Amino acid sequence: MSATDVRPPVLFCDFDGTITMSDNIVAIMKHFDPPGWEPIVKDIVAERKKVRQGVGEMFALLPSSMREEVTRFVLENAGIRPGFPELLAWCEKNGVEFFVTSGGIDFFVYPLLAPFDIPRDHIFCNGSDFSGERIRITWPNPCDDDCDNAGGCGMCKTTIIRRYPREQYRRILIGDSVTDFPGAKLADLVYSRSHLTEKCRELGLPHVPFETFHDIVAHLEQGDWKR
Length: 227
Ligand code: MG
Ligand code: ZN
Prior knowledge:
The protein is an alpha/beta fold. It has a domain at 9-22 and 80-127 and 138-226: Rossmann fold (3-Layer(aba) Sandwich). 38% of the residues lie in helices and 16% in strands. The chain contains ten helices and seven strands. The protein has helices at residues 24-32, 37-45, 51-59, 67-77, 84-94, 106-113, 157-161, 181-184, 194-203, 213-222, and strands at residues 9-13, 97-105, 123-129, 136-138, 170-175, 189-192, 207-209. Helix 6 links the parallel strand 2 and strand 3 (123-129). The chain is globular, with a radius of gyration of 17 Å. The model has no long low-confidence stretch (mean pLDDT 95). Residues 143, 147, 149, 153, 156, 158-159 line the site of zinc ion.
């Protein structure tokens, strides 16, 4: 970030494995263990299968009658990564916009974020439909024509990121895994964990590995992000 850069930062933050300590979709599948989920996850992580297709297929392995059980499991087991309230407070104090851009599902994303003061229109995630025999994932935030992932994102992070043009904003992405790969390529800076750190290294993208949100606040505090 150069000293002459006057673009205000805008933050796009992943949910599963980033705001929460682990990936809730993987945790649901591991716990309830419907036959056939493992190869789907492997194919998604290896980018052999699009996220949208894979996530849809995995939830279709679970009957809608398990709604309460699955929801309760996530709410009781998902831990929030340390420093998250502090990052939100930093954004508030500095007038920086903060978006949750999640490949997770509404029935656990909204309840887990309820303790934090994030406007609903700053939270993007996938939807769910429990009216049929099996859980059906819905996709209210699909890829636009400029996404080069051929409609495969599910919740399309790049569609949201591109609403904040590079010329006007310093786009900062926070994430950990495969749903963050396309967005990372558009970002000025990536705060990365896990698979996303490896991907950023491989592609030579500017990134700062982090463990807690305290690390991110400390790094943002150093930056000359002010106008
Ligand atoms: Mg994630
Ligand atoms: Zn997309």
